[in-house]
Amino acid sequence: MYKKKIILFAAFAFLIVILALSLTVWSTKFTASNIAQVNMANSLLTEHLKLSDHSYRLFKQITDEILLGKSANQSIVRNKRAMITETLSRIRALEIAQREALGPEKTKGSVEDTDNLEMAINGILKSFAEVLEMSDEQSRSQKIKFLLEEQIDNNFRDAINLALQRQSGLVDALNANIENRHALIYWSALVLSLLAIFLTILGSLALIRNITEPVDQLKKGAEALSKGDLQYRVPLGFDAEFDAIAESFNGMAHNLAEQKQLRDTLNQNLEYEVAKRTEE
To answer: pTM of whole model > 0.70?
Structure first.
């Protein structure tokens, strides 16, 4: 029985270790997954900022050509357009990966934001091309005013701000989720540790009690026999192993009591015979 209790106690300790390791593995996987998601979201946010920078630089260069009569370097213009196209491609690739990782609900509207940005950029570039082809100064001035105030300052700015705001909100939500999960992991680990300590102490005390109490009973029995109390019996009802020892001990005490009784009887008979012969 004691072996079973020790085995059960060891199994319990092993279970606690397994739970702790499982929590550690889950925490590691969760952290790695969330860090990857946050990095992806930050990369997408960075690409939006790059798109904004490239677009405004291109718009400024073309505007300077129109308003100030500066001849735009067409290789630079083509380079900036290529950079805008590449940035849009990276944004779309990241959006697809982000949607696969987080699901359509959390990334709702991101693809539409990129579509709106691309439409706004293409519309602005088309308007610039139309302005460059105009010869009437009044119509040209009105078109430039509409282009700068409405298409760039309003439409494009609103589109890029909406995309940045949506992506920034997603980054903040992911960071908040990581903090909440880390707090959950921390408190779960703390509760599990305290529970393990409590149960370990409780189990140890119970195991010690189950071992020491029968031993104390045997000790009392041995002390009683040493003092000549052959009627003392060790109580049963603890464990099978102890009951077997207690029964052997009680059997020994019973045999000693019978031998003492027999010896006392023989001594009494001997004294009687001696006294009888002395009288004769």
So the answer is: no
